[in-house]
Amino acid sequence: MTAARPTPVRVFEPLGKSPLLHRLDAEDSDLAVLLAATADPEPATVRALLSITAMPAADRVARALDDRTDLPLTSLALLVAHRPDVKRATGALRGRLFPDAAAPGTCHTFARTVAALAHQPASVDDAYLSGERFRESAAAADPAVLGELLAPLLDADTLSDPAETGLIALLDARASRAPTAQVDLAATAALTRARRHRVRAGLIARREQTVRDLAHHTAGLTLAAELWFDAITTAADTPAQASQALAMTEDAADTLASGGDFGCAWPAVRSRWQQVTAARTTRTHPSGWEEAWQAAEATDDGARWDDTQRALVTGYDLLVEHVRTTWPRADVPPTPDECWAADLTGRMLLHIVADHLTGHQTHSPLPHYDDRLLIAFVHGLAKNRRDSIPADLHVTGLIAAIKAARSKAALLARAVPADLGIVVPMRAETQRLTRVLNGDNALTAKVAQLGWLLAAHPDARADLLLVDESTDSASARAAAEAIQADHPQIRVTIAARPDRGSAKGGAVLWGLAELIGAGRTILAYTDLDLTYPLDQLGLHIAALDQPTVGAVIGSRRRPDSHGYYPSAGPAPTSLLYQRAVRDLLQLDTTDPQAGFKAFPVAALRAALPLVTDQSLAFDSDLLAAIGRSEYTVAEVGIAALHQYVEGPRGTPRDYDAMLNAVHRQALRHGLDPDLRRTPTWDRIRHAGSLAAAAAERPTTTLLMPSTPR
Questions:
Q1: Given the DSSP bridges, would you call strands 419-426 and 632-637 parallel, antiparallel or unpaired?
Q2: Contact 154, 183 (CB under 8 A)
Q3: Which is it for the CA torsion 14, 19, 20, 24, positive or negative?
Q4: CA–CA separation, 651 vs 388, rounded Å?
Q5: Which pLDDT band holds residue 404 (cuts at 50, 70, 90)?
Q6: What phi and psi, each to the nearest 5 degrees, are found at residue 561?
Q7: What mean pLDDT is predicted for residues 159-168?
Q8: Taking a C-beta distance cutoff of 8 angstroms, is the pair 114, 77 a contact?
Q9: How far apart are the first and last CA of the chain?
Q10: SS3 (DSSP) at 25
Q11: Of 24-33, 458-467, 626-635, minimum mean pLDDT range
Q12: Going by C-beta distance under 8 Å and a sequence separation of 6 or more, which residues neighbour residue 578?
């Protein structure tokens, strides 16, 4: 049996797109005339028919259209505009414009002029526009019909000079009529819009030059200048404002060089100008960027780098040179946190690289590539260069600079300045708060990281609240001695709150509640050590700006994270713990225990009353409460300044005790074991511990087909 052949599908295009109307041969003239006489007279079809210019076909088409009595108003106007010699259509258009044929001012010339103004403004007779006959006809014409005929002009963003002249003449001629008709209001709006667009066009044409001029005073950093220019272009709503904005852009470089101000009344523009000024005043440390940029022009084999790649290569070379010259023969090389956070020169160099990656003469790689690709590029560059740098410090430093750059770019682009409250819990932290050789103490380094970030938005503010929960308050006293100077955008507060029943969780939860009471709108917490750089907090803030996000985790385990784990990834016990937390609390996160999280104030207000756990497992309790409050939990990949070493390091933790706490949290947050399975938790409980469950070898059951007898 032969299968039935499928029926071909026919697609009918609008008549205005017919090949006949665009590729007319001589023998097709009769068919074109037939279409003109019988086809649906929609404007697209009439416009296509009128595009036929070959004689005598064009005349025959025009006559066929003119003979019709069913042309709608727009089609009539199209025909009269393209063929003002047609008589019937001109008469019909005149009749629509002047319903009272006996009234003074009824005029065929006016009908032709209005049609031309809508569709062929260059053909309008300027002499007629200035005459009394035009004024009389404009005053007598039906305003609703005028508005419908002139819709192509009244809805346009721009107007040609003849169209603008015609609309002005029409408004002047109708100025004596009251009340003002809708067509007059629409024409006035169209003229205002066109004038603003024309002046704005001049403003936009100045953009590249203005940004380049400003870059001379900001060491080439251009993102703040670009955002200021965009704000001033958006704020210019009238032609007068656009002219004022153009004058400001022309004087911008001189104003910045002199440290002056414009006295501008537009708040968004003033705020952005402060960012430009901040970019200028913070460029005090010589970086050697220009020399490194010139040296990174090409690869070793002579190929030229793309400018976005070249910026990364320049940063790479600067960081490599810093490590080689600072620790040339160190018996014990520094750790990443010592090299790029505690060490003043290393920290400043990382921030200089980050500044240039944020926006340097439009060569920033950030808008073109995501962090995963950028990290892969850095690893590939290090592999090809074969630089012998201890612990790959240069790789960690450059990736941390990329993260800091994206963090600062996010804060720069934010329309509303950040109002931050950051909790730092402390217990037995005196060693980190004591100044070390060739480096700053942890508090000084954190304030410097946060200050560099906030400089992107001079109106941004932060409260840094250190909470010492130890019984002797030694960390609080050491922190008070460690504060070296006030920062204009950061207030540091130290609280001694002894609590024997807390293990970090109590200090964090109490501190968050205190900062909510102080009116902070974005809350965060992190550890006192320098693993989590505060200059990356802009990544969290950008994620919090998304609707429904109630918590953001600075994850060490995402594909775009770096620095915390060995290349093989987290240990089996860590992965099993994460899976168990996901089972018990339904938290779909990669790193629930990360000590670098941020929250909007509304989400914390809803969640904090639901949190009771003050142990080291408090993080998951808080995240589960966020979820119960109908918010979502997001994650951002961070670059941790951490050097992985085998074996235990840092504060010892009983992960089995923490997991038992998570199980209690799950029961409190609504887990019913009879209704929802928790296979990972069951496996760990059956094995007796996390370590025992992680050490179990997976068993494979092979199903053999039965042998037929």
A1: unpaired
A2: yes
A3: positive
A4: 31
A5: very high
A6: -95, 165
A7: 84
A8: yes
A9: 40
A10: coil
A11: 24-33
A12: 557, 570, 589, 590, 591, 592
Q: How far apart are CA 486 and CA 269, in angstroms?
A: 28
- Of residues 564 and 380, the one with the higher pLDDT is 380
pLDDT in tens, 564-619: 877 677 788 888 998 999 999 999 899 999 999 999 999 999 999 999 999 989 99
CA-based nearest residue to 121, from 148, 152, 99, 100: 152
* C-alpha span between 644 and 391 (Å, rounded): 9
- Please say if the pLDDT value at position 650 is more than 50: no
Written as one letter, the residue type at 347 is R
Distances (CA, A) of 200 to 160, 212, 226, 554, 602: 15, 19, 16, 42, 40
pLDDT in the model for residue 639: 96
Question: Which whole number is the average pLDDT over 368-388?
Answer: 92
Q: β-strand 490-496 against 596-600: which pairing, if any?
A: unpaired
Task: Give the burial string for 365-384 (b: 16+ CB within 10 Å, else e).
Answer: bbeebebeebbebbbebbee
**Which residues, listed in sequence order, are joined to residue 555 by a DSSP beta bridge?**
637
For the record, the structure tokens of 416 come out as: 């509303």
Burial of 482 (0-12, 13-18, 19+ CB in 10 A): buried
Length of the chain counted residue by residue: 709
DSSP structural state of residue 636: E
Q: Which long-range contacts (CB under 8 A, 24 or more apart) does 65-69 make?
A: 65/36, 65/37, 65/41, 65/89, 67/37, 68/37, 68/41
**How do residues 180-235 score in pLDDT, each as one tens digit?**
778 888 888 888 888 777 777 888 888 989 998 998 888 778 888 999 999 998 88
The residue assigned the tokens 């003033």 is 270
- pLDDT, one tens digit per residue, over 414-426 is 888 899 999 999 9
Q: Which two structure tokens, joined as six digits, stand for 628?
A: 């119960």
- Higher pLDDT: 327 or 436? It is 327
The CA distance from 153 to 183, in Å, is 11
Answer with the residue of higher pLDDT: 702 or 55. Answer: 55
Q: Tell me phi and psi for residue 419, to 5 degrees.
A: -120, 95
Which range of 77-91, 321-335, 384-398 scores highest in mean pLDDT? It is 384-398
> Which helix (H) or strand (E) segment is 325 a member of?
helix 307-326
Q: Hey, what are 428's tokens?
A: 């037995």
For tokens 């950093």, what's the residue?
221
Q: Give dist(CA 33, CA 44) in Å, integer.
A: 16
Q: Reduced to 3 states, what is the DSSP secondary structure of residue 313? A: helix
Here the tokens at position 415 are: 């329309």
Could you tell me the CA-to-CA distances from 502 to 425, 468, 609 in Å, in that order?
Answer: 11, 11, 17
**Which residues have CB under 8 Å from 46's CB, separation 6+?**
65, 71, 75, 78, 79
The residues with which 600 forms a beta bridge, in sequence order, are 522
Rounded to an integer, the average pLDDT of 340-365 is 89
Nearest-angstrom CA–CA distance, 164 and 170: 10
Q: What is the mean pLDDT of the chain?
A: 85
What is the rounded CA–CA span in Å between residue 453 and residue 412? 9
- Closest listed residue to residue 492, CA positions, set 522, 464, 520: 464
**Which residues have a Cβ under 8 Å from the Cβ of 481 and sit 6 or more positions away?**
433
Rounded to a whole number of angstroms, the CA Rg of the chain reads 36
